[in-house]
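re: ur question from yesterday

yeah so i grabbed the chain u mentioned. its 441 aa long if i counted rite. heres the sequnce exactly as i have it in my notes:
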Amino acid sequence: MGLGAIIQDDDPAADPGQAVVSAPETGLRRNFPGLGRIADSIKQFEDVLRDFVTMSDGDTSKKVTRILQQVREVEPSVTVIGQIKAGKTSLLNAMIGEPGLLPTDVNPWTSVVTSLHINTPSPELNVRAKFKFFDSAEWDKLVSNGGRIGQLAARAGADDELEKLRLQVVQMREKAQARLGRKFEMLLGTEHRYGTVDDALLRRYVCVGDEESGGAEQGRFTDITKSADLYIERADFPVQLCVRDTPGVNDTFMMREQITINAVRDSRSCIVVLSAHQALTTMDMALIRLIAHRQSREIIIFVNRIDELPDPANQVPEIHRAILETLEKNNAPPDIDIIYGSAHWANAVLEGKIDEMTEDSTDSAINWTRAAFADKMDAWSAEQLVWHASGVPALLDALGQRMYEGPVREALQKSSRQALNLAQSLDVVDQVRILESDGQL
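ran it thru and got these structure tokens back, copy pasting raw so excuse formatting
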């Protein structure tokens, strides 16, 4: 018997209030009001600017068009961080509606900051993937003093840590040289570009792991890859959005940890992914303090893998109380969103495979949906129930609201001031022209 038959006896039509865009693999309707609010605000602003263009002379029209382009290029970003195996990459795949896009097997894991640009035009024609390599100077700096993290260790007098870091960087370089041979020096400071994105490509540039399982090409360029940019089109996303996947902060290589910490600086919004089995460790709390020091409003905690809890209906409230106590003890910001869910459930829905989940995962899904969505049991299909139980809709909605209130609003306010200044200057010019025609000047 399938999950749908277990949860409910029938499969009623979708709630008419749900969104109208469907994911490609299933009949699932994905609706993200927070992101929709951003899209509506940008569209309204564009409509006003277009009217402004029609009423302007040629020179002014060009200035307004530049402001319009500036608005169209608004790309809010979020960085997903957390420890190795917390499920960051699986969650990211579910968020953008592309299960299996980034490799998530047990053996390989993300070792390079990977930026997924959703609906953002690629800056280069026919380029869908771009991988940047460290240049020679960056390598030399890393080897000599460990980069930024090495400088901090040196100032703190942590000589042992500095030497450990230096040896790790040397090891990374030697490994890359052994893999690439003569090509190593030639590749430093260059880029590789591709017109398509597939699993094998990403395994070569952003994953590390067991070569026996992943193949000889797995991780071939990983140690010299500084960053990866992928350009993805998603019809069910109403806005442009950049989502960054990062190396685990408990990676044995401190350099990858530092790369993740640097990536936090590139996004106003951060999602801290925890495992339901190990919520809020000392390292997680240190990350939250680091982010809160910059922009406390932009932190969202996603407690993943509740599908592995035998009784999430009772265990999630216990986990929630423990997280709140830990946050309070550590003087964390009081307005952090905490969302519970399962990337595994979300991807199963997106792939149309909820009836193929294990018995334990199915039991957990039934347990959680009956507790969290009791009022929707008769209104939603099994697919909708599991999708919402995954926490992904709530996560993207919360993210959209925070982006709207933060970086998006600031960008629109900046453009509004520019347009207003331009409009005011035109009003002065018009007044001068009226005075001239009346002979008053």
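noticed a couple things. The two ends are 88 Å apart (CA to CA). also The first strand starts at residue 77 and ends at 82.
anyway ttyl
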